[in-house]
Design a protein that fits this description.
heterodimer; A: mainly alpha; 8 helices; B: 193 residues; mainly alpha; 77% helix
């Protein structure tokens, strides 16, 4: 579907622009110039945040924290195997995709664990990345309650993922 | 709070590496991440420039404003700070629609542009306004109709019914988005009091 959607949207914008006598080449390039400033604004956030996430994961601290939390989280019906994924999800999207791949390899794509992990991955976003990039582009320094809300919403998504995964059993 | 999160990740990582002898891995990962972050940034650059260009054209053609008027009754209550009929409603709606239909490529640039517009509305201060926190909460909740990447991985591993997770995932993401909105309202009220 996306194959048709994007060209359709772009064509509609250009068509309506021409009809309304907009100098479309100028607005396209002017807008792109604005995008360039935004890009410059987000690069520092990407470099700094990804460095922290890399240190946290490579040290083994992430895996250790997951194994500490597993007994507690199992009280809420989260299997120990998906705890690392839940823990890393808000800070690294590529790492959790690799974990999902691994879980499917180990338990089979039709297993409860694979389905639960897939629902968890599919119903959340990389909160820290979204926050760093969105606020970085706008030059926001004081982020208010955004991180807290984002992380709590992730926890809620995992809770509802457990409920929803039981439908597939 | 972002500083605290950053410090926690870095310092607990270094401490753990010191105790468990993984310092060599940490060093390697640290330098690798610097390369990867620039690669990610570069892969994002073209998309960002292209879509901000398209959005500026859409704005000039009056499409953003027309969209804003359409979604006003729906989104107006979520964003009480934004004046009625302001074009930024059109940006917010475009971002949400792009996210919903899995057009992540377009959603991020439009989202960044939306943040800039919201900042202008807030008198260019470097503190996040209530609308910005609400908008971010909607984005981190990631309301998507079809999680395509996840389905692709399921397919690769021979799932007998790889699309059966669509409905459960949609349920979880919509519920978490509602939860995020409730939290956002709660914290906004707490700040006013």
């Amino acid at each position: 579907m996306a194959v048709w959607l994007i060209p359709l949207i772009v064509a509609a914008v250009i068509g309506i622009g021409l009809y309304k006598n907009v100098n479309i080449y100028e607005t396209l390039t002017d807008g792109a110039k604005e995008g360039m400033y935004m890009w410059i604004a987000i690069v520092p956030h990407l470099v700094i945040m990804m460095a922290a996430v890399a240190v946290f994961r490579a040290s083994g601290a992430a895996a250790e924290l997951a194994s500490w939390m597993a007994p507690f989280l199992s009280l809420f019906g989260i299997p120990a195997d998906v705890v690392p994924l839940a823990l890393i999800r808000p800070i690294s999207g590529s790492a959790t995709l690799a974990m999902l791949d691994q879980l499917m390899q180990e338990h089979g794509a039709d297993s409860y664990i694979a389905k639960l992990a897939a629902i968890m991955q599919g119903s959340t976003d990389t909160t820290l990345y979204v926050l760093a990039v969105y606020f970085g582009a706008a030059g926001i320094k004081k982020t208010g309650d955004a991180l807290k809300i984002g992380l709590l919403a992730d926890a809620a998504a995992f809770f509802f993922a457990i409920i929803a995964a039981s439908w597939l059993l | 709070m972002v500083s605290a999160a950053f410090a926690f990740l870095m310092l607990s990582g270094f401490l753990f590496a010191a105790v468990n002898g993984t310092m060599a891995d940490v060093n390697e990962a640290l330098f690798q991440s610097m390369e990867q972050s620039i690669e990610l940034a570069l892969s994002l650059a073209g998309i960002l420039l292209f879509w901000t260009g398209v959005m500026k054209t859409a704005e000039g053609a009056g499409i953003v404003k027309a969209l804003a008027n359409t979604v006003q009754p729906l989104l107006g209550r979520l964003f009480p700070e934004i004046p009625d009929g302001h074009p930024v409603f059109g940006y917010i709606a475009s971002n949400m629609a792009a996210n919903f239909f899995g057009l992540g490529n377009a959603a991020t640039p439009i989202g960044l542009k939306t943040m800039r517009e919201l900042k202008k509305l807030n008198g260019d201060q470097d503190t996040a306004s209530r609308s910005m926190v609400t908008f971010l909460a909607l984005n981190t909740a990631a309301v998507t109709l079809i999680p395509t990447t996840v389905i692709a991985i399921s397919l690769k591993h021979g799932a007998s019914n790889p699309t059966d997770i669509i409905l459960p995932a949609l349920f979880a993401t919509v519920m978490s988005a509602f939860f995020a909105i409730l939290l956002d309202r709660y914290y906004a009220h707490k700040r006013i009091r």
